[in-house]
Predict the structure.
Amino acid sequence: MIKLDVKPLISVGEVEFGMPREKVRQLFGAYSEFRKTPNSVKTTDAFSFCHVFYDDNDCCEAIEIFDAEVYINDRLIFPCSLDEVKVLFPNAEEEYGSYLEKELSIGLYIPDKDAESILLGKEGYYL
């Protein structure tokens, strides 16, 4: 399984928020492009372990990870359970099955008891 070191608001692995789409593709490898919703203006890149979202300038603004281990300061934060999220992110707000730590631009999708994905974004992504 892929292991990614994250610096909240700054980077996911080697990919930095604000990095151009072409550079993200070079770093993450094979991809397909799709629209996340029928109303999406910008396309999203799908890689084997994540989806990458881009802003109006075609620069990375968020990464949703579903098949990798994610670490912050050598601490595993994904995969995780709902109970672990409540300890890791005590200020996270629950919204429709997601738990958002808005100051760090981290969101975890937890429809049941275990997180299915984690989204990490640039500063202000959830504000």
